[in-house]
Amino acid sequence: MAELAAAALVAASLTACASRPAGVLQPVAASPSSDRVEMLVTTMRNRSVNPGEMFNGERALAPAFAEITVSIPPKDVRKVGEVAWPRELPPDPTTDFATLKAEQVDQRTAEKWLNKKASKSPDRSVMVFIHGFNNQFDDAVFRFAQIVHDSNMHSVPVLATWPSRGSLLAYGYDRESTNYTRNAVENLFQYLARDAEIKEVSILAHSMGNWLALESLRQMAIRNGGLPAKFKNVMLAAPDVDVDVFRSQIADMGTQRPRFTLFVSRDDRALAFSRRVWGDVSRLGAIDPEQSPYKEELAANNIAVVDLTKIRAGDELHHSKFAESPEIVQLIGARLSTGQTLTDSRHGLGDTIVSAAAGAAHTAGTAAGLVISAPVAIIDPNTRQNYGKHVEALDVSPK
After folding, report:
1. Quick one: 314 and 378 in the same domain?
2. 352 in the same domain as 336
3. With CB atoms counted within 10 Å of each terminal CB, which end of the chain scores lower, N or C?
4. What are 153-201's pLDDT values in tens digits?
5. Which residues contact 287 (CB under 8 A, 6 or more apart)?
6. What's the CATH code of the domain at 236?
7. pTM, 2 dp
């Protein structure tokens, strides 16, 4: 524990640990110099009492819907692949990502919005984004807005966001939340299949969100006897999915499947941690696609692979490369037009140390795991916020 605390103090002295402001979804006035992204959101999160947060990380009994418009600052103040989070509120639309509209709507209004937008889209296409583990609601909204804008995609953006508590210490809760959300996402897919105005559907999933995407597609295929032809592209970015389970999911979808594109990186530290959690079985997003048996299986299933191992972009975990690399995010846009940190949440230095500590795979989220992280939580405001929530949930206190 002393060594962990010392390492944290040294790192903290080298890195500024500033918390992002909460409540960034409170709408502000637009700037004429900024672009904007309009999206539809469907979520199984509970409504937040804070209007600037909209939805929290707890599970709702039924889906909710929202129309959100995000302002993107000009190119000369932001790099492609970067989410320009405001340092203070209200945000400045000339330099920060800012919310122009955030309105909860009922399902009928959401369907009308989607139908109208799809009818005006050049190819009448929709792109569904499913975020990964450790994302709060605003993380998912701003990151998806960045991907939509930087990829120059023309599809109608739909964000499907599941109840994630936005903490590395809540891995188990988040994983169960993806299972909790499967029926809601399948229902979304079924609606997109029925809507005659929508001619093409693409799905982009990241990290743990790939499990939710694949399971929902699998359910739909089993229920319908196959997947609809309008489901054209499924892009799996850094999938936190057991490779053996993936084989069975693909088989259950049948022979008429969308075009799958797999983004892998063998230096993905988040997936290395997940591999330890799940019994040392390879995670799909960290395989070597040139090695057997993966090479042969990918070819047999006509799955395209983009290997990002040598790309130098993204967070320190190497888990968000495809969204933060300018070349890759534009490649995604090109893929969509021709026929696609995501982990941006408020994890701090202490969260990373807890997840990397020996035995943390089985103690994250428990009293023992919290005791290990206690010295770090004192100095790191991001970790302190997450840590406090877990202490409250477990009714323990750091000694």
Report:
1. no
2. no
3. C
4. 889 999 999 999 988 788 889 999 999 999 999 999 999 999 999 999 9
5. 243, 264, 266, 294
6. 3.40.50.1820
7. 0.79
